[in-house]
């Protein structure tokens, strides 16, 4: 009486299989995720390239740039990291390599602050198909700040970052992107740079050379998103910029048409080095830097650079990379992050074939063939 007929059994099994499919997808997503290296491709031979001193890294970099093809944009990709949470950088690099740089092989410069062992650096090197170069940076108090930095940063009412112990490291980081990076010898002989952070993720394959896009379009500044800044984090900045513009013979290009709190979210930023080194732009950056607001008021690099771009560039010299799937700010490698950042196209072909076969089996059990 309570027995199940063979036909029903087949249907139950078939439905069970269908129910399993999302879990199988999840399983593959997890296994191809950044936290795993199972899907790492094209590792260079072990021991071929070892980390060296700052000068040694620069010499290697210059050697590489000497042989740079004249047809290829002279460009670098750079990161500044503090040295904690290297897994974030590993993930970011993995996605950058997989979705862009494995094809284009632009040099990637890692500026880092805290001591990193040779093993840690070598691990990064051995995982990265694209050429990596390391530079240890040390930050000091700028001359324009007379008091101890700890006292200076207390003035700001900007609520970010939430963890106040990150001052003044966070402020140094902002100042690095505003000016110090342009003083680095790594950017001295290149035309283009692409800045990324260790919590930057290129989620989808980029089918073209982003630097060529900039070069061919005559663009100077490329961005991926615009956000509204918290007014508490730009206190006194507007006043300083207005004062500067009033006293300089500058005709702002787009500044007065730009919403005052909008900022290019420059954790993704592709730009022309020569623009930032232009005397008028440099003078503006230097002026803003000397006001000390990066420390006193926690002005971020994003609002300062947005001001420079909107003052000195026409709108048609900026480019919105709207087609790129980019994500920033993932703090933890939870399974849902992993799942959301995994593209169906990431799943290896073999697994896809396996899944198609599985679906066919299900059809054989419950579909028209089973009758
Ligand atoms: N050298 C250095 N890098 C930092 C420091 N704080 C953050 N960074 C790096 O700067 C980038 C942006 O940091 P993040 O915490 O994501 O800043 P947010 O996006 O503005 O919240 C990341 O690559 C960090 O590793 C710091 O104190 N020193
Ligand atoms: Mg971030």
Automatic annotation (TrEMBL):
Keywords: Membrane, Transferase, Transmembrane, Transmembrane helix. It comes from the Eukaryota. The keyword Nucleotide-binding does not apply. The chain crosses the membrane at residues 12-30, 349-369. Gene3D superfamilies: Spore Coat Polysaccharide Biosynthesis Protein SpsA, Chain A (3.90.550.10). GO terms for cellular component: Golgi apparatus; membrane. One of its GO terms (molecular function) is alpha-1,2-mannosyltransferase activity. GO terms for biological process: cell wall mannoprotein biosynthetic process; protein N-linked glycosylation. The keyword Nucleus does not apply. Belongs to the glycosyltransferase 15 family. This is Glycolipid 2-alpha-mannosyltransferase 2. The lineage of its organism: Eukaryota, Metazoa, Spiralia, Lophotrochozoa, Brachiopoda. The gene is LOC106156147.
């Amino acid at each position: 009486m309570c027995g199940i007929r063979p036909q029903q059994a087949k249907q139950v099994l078939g439905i069970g299989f269908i129910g399993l499919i999302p879990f199988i997808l999840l399983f593959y997503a997890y296994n191809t995720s950044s936290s795993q290296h199972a899907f790492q491709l094209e590792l260079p031979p072990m021991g071929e390239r070892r980390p060296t001193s700052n000068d040694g890294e620069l010499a290697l970099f210059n050697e590489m740039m000497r042989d740079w093809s004249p047809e290829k944009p002279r460009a670098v990709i750079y990161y500044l990291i503090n040295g904690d949470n290297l897994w974030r950088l590993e993930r970011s690099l993995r996605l950058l390599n997989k979705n862009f740089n494995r094809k284009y092989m632009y040099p990637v410069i890692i500026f880092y602050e805290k001591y990193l062992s040779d093993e840690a650096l070598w691990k990064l090197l051995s995982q990265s198909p694209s050429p990596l170069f390391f530079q240890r940076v040390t930050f000091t108090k700028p001359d324009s700040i007379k008091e101890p930095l700890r006292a200076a940063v207390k003035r700001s009412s900007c609520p970010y970052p939430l963890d106040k112990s990150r001052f003044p490291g966070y402020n140094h980081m902002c100042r690095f992107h505003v000016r110090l990076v342009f003083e680095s010898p790594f950017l001295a002989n290149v035309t283009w740079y692409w800045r990324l952070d260790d919590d930057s993720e290129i989620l989808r394959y980029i089918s073209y050379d982003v630097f060529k896009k900039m070069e061919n379009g005559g663009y100077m500044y490329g961005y991926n998103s615009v956000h509204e800044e918290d007014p508490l984090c730009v206190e006194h900045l507007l006043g300083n910029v207005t004062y500067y513009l009033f006293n300089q013979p500058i005709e702002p290009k787009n500044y007065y048409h730009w919403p005052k709190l909008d900022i290019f979210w420059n954790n993704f930023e592709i730009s022309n080095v020569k623009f930032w080194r232009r005397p008028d732009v440099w003078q503006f950056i230097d002026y803003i830097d000397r006001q000390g607001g990066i420390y006193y008021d926690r002005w971020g690099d994003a609002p300062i650079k947005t001001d420079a771009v909107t003052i000195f560039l026409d709108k048609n010299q900026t480019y919105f990379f709207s087609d790129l799937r980019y994500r920033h700010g993932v703090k933890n490698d939870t399974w849902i992050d992993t799942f959301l950042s995994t593209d169906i196209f990431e799943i290896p072909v073999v697994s896809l074939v396996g899944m198609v076969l599985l679906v066919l089996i299900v059809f054989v059990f419950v579909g028209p063939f089973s009758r």
